[in-house]
Design brief:
19% strand, 6 helices, alpha+beta, two-stranded antiparallel ribbon
């Protein structure tokens, strides 16, 4: 556990230095790009959220507030939060109306959605979000994940081949997503094929939360 904690904290410090450096350079320019500043602030907020989630998981802290929420509201909130990243990276998104309400924790599910969307933004110019039966599906037509990497994407620190296409990956985002989704009892399945894209299924069929 100590080695895992040290690896996570080392990764976190390294990762947060990147947006800090970018912010510093942007602020030194006479005409700073507002979208660049916003995108780096988003990344820093995500890293802070990641640190909080990691700490709570390791300390077995119960921070869940379970209630029925409209899934469409959570999705649109996440998309709005990440809007500068979509614009800056020229990402088009098809967003269908999501009609189902789910029993979940708003904050923790938002973290899951943000992480999955952030991955899609890194690796694809186009994506879509829709519901199918009792599943939420986030689909992109990006690089895809190799069949060799696919079984290991939820492992702590695993980045696979996608560190992949010039994009840095910490290897902890999906690891935390897997821990949280298990606790919320929202199973996640990832389908992917290199050159074809990735499809993430989040299942809301189960009504019990694993406290």
């Amino acid at each position: 556990i100590q080695k895992e904690n040290q690896a996570f904290f080392t990764m976190w410090v390294h990762e947060i230095k990147l947006p800090l450096s970018t912010l510093q350079l942007a602020l030194e320019e006479e005409e700073s790009n507002k979208l660049v500043l916003q995108s780096q602030l988003i990344k820093m907020n995500q890293l802070v959220d990641m640190m909080l989630m990691y700490a709570k998981q390791k300390d077995n802290q119960q921070d869940l507030v379970i209630r029925e929420v409209k899934l469409d509201h959570i999705i649109r909130q996440s998309v709005q939060q990440l809007r500068p990243l979509f614009i800056l990276n020229h990402i088009s998104l098809e967003l269908s109306e999501i009609k189902q309400s789910v029993l979940t924790d708003n904050k923790w599910l938002t973290f899951i959605i943000n992480q999955i969307l952030s991955n899609a933004i890194k690796y694809s110019p186009h994506g879509k979000i829709y519901e199918q039966n009792q599943e939420l599906i986030i689909e992109d037509d990006g690089y895809g994940i190799s069949q060799e990497d696919l079984p290991r994407v939820f492992e702590a620190g695993y980045t696979g081949q996608n560190g992949h296409q010039g994009q840095y990956s910490s290897g902890y985002g999906l690891y935390l997503v897997s821990l949280i989704s298990h606790q919320l009892n929202h199973p996640i399945v990832i389908e992917s094929m290199v050159g074809k894209g990735t499809k993430v299924h989040i299942c809301f069929e189960n009504k019990k939360v694993l406290l």
